[in-house]
Amino acid sequence: TAPTDSKQENSITEREPIAAIATPVGEGGIAVIRVSGQEAIAKVNSAFQGTDLATKESHTVHFGNIVDAEGAVVDEVLVTLFQSPKSYTGEETVEISCHGGVLVTQAVLETILALGVRSAEAGEFTQRAFLNGKMELSQAEAVADLIHAKSAKALDAAHQQLEGKLGKHIKEFRQQIIDATAMVELELDFVEEDVEFANKEQLHELLTDLDEEIDNLLATYETGRLVKHGVRTVFIGLPNAGKSTLLNTLVGKDRAIVTDIAGTTRDTIDVDWSYDGIRFILTDTAGLRETEDVVEAEGVKRSQKAFEEADLAVYLKDLSQTLTPQEREDIAQFQQAAGDTPFVLIGTKNDIALQVDDERMSYDLKISALEGEKVDALKQLMKQRALENKHYDASSLLVTSSRHRDALQKAQQNVTSAIRALDQGMTGDFLSIDLRSALKDLGTITGEITTEDVLDSIFSRFCIGK
Ligand code: GDP
Questions:
Q1: Strand 343-348 to strand 365-366: parallel, antiparallel, or no bridges (unpaired)?
Q2: Which of 108, 215, 267, 400 is 20 to 30 A from 55 via CA?
Q3: CATH architecture of residue range(s) 229-387
Q4: How crowded is the C-beta side of 92, counted as CA atoms within 13 Å?
């Protein structure tokens, strides 16, 4: 047969066979049990009744029974065969599709485990795919993001990363550094002969370009973070301002998705809500001024805490009530406390607003949650304000992981330090050290350079069976 050009095929290591249920546990039409590793097909074959799997080609599906050691039928199944290296892990793999009940699935898994196959750890299939060069580390991480994606845009971002777009950027950066290092080390070779460093200008340009490109990529993280984790939105206002009503109006029937996110105060509730592909986590700060006997500053203090965690603050003022000097003062303080966090001032209950409008307050919007007035405009405003001043281009690559952000920042620091060394006329070996460090930092993103700890922390985020 013609040799393939894939270098992956040379680097596959068949590890001990592992198995796990790859579908969610519960009742369903079918469930899939994945078996991967040395002699996976032979192992399954020894518990399979119907046809001799050992004689079958890769990527074929076979009907039969899984039988236990006594020959009793455990379940009627379909098995799909994948010969190495053409599988997700790169190893020999069998996927057993059985009936989707909790007990029957467990029984099939137990039967396979009894053949000397080990239970897979969380993410172990994907880890093997990475170790076998089937994907880069950033792509493996994207698999987890894909599974955990909570909004359409988060899914897009995970897809982009899974396609290897981030890896491609990182490879380009690394190539630029390698080029720069070559220029520096060429100079080192001639230093004895006192050769004037001819390419200083060129090297400077290369490094400043690189610095800027890393900066541009880093700048996408703020949006990436919001897209991946959601926009934390706090609703503030006096009791009865209409916070819960608005929350219910926004979320509508989907209100059922109420999550209790750890770390939030007990008197706030968090609701997951998606609008136009963006996930919002709405927090209703139950009446900041409810207890009048507490110290004055308490309300603001609590909201300050909420602001620290928030990406967007929405203040609701009841338009059917006169604006007291106290509330006017509160609003000003909240606005100040918000700092860089976008702050939106909304007038509520516009359907029963006081006729004399002597408030001299400039509202971003006046709405009526009860009548649905301007509610769509509010949704748009929330998205716009949450993402304003952030790089937001639906089609462009976003850095969504803090691990990647940290590595990019370190690489950038090293590049900056190399530029400084160059400007100060330091010798090439100083530059060389900085550049090599930068190369290493970037390598941790795609996984050229990695440690057990990093791998463990990444793959433990996965579910068993992935
Ligand atoms: P919260 O304490 O800020 O959460 O306020 P609620 O959402 O519980 O609302 C307080 C009262 O105002 C309730 O009786 C609501 O029905 C009423 N309310 C809320 N929004 C509107 C609105 O847009 N128009 C009118 N007329 N009443 C509203």
A1: parallel
A2: 108
A3: 3-Layer(aba) Sandwich (3.40)
A4: 17
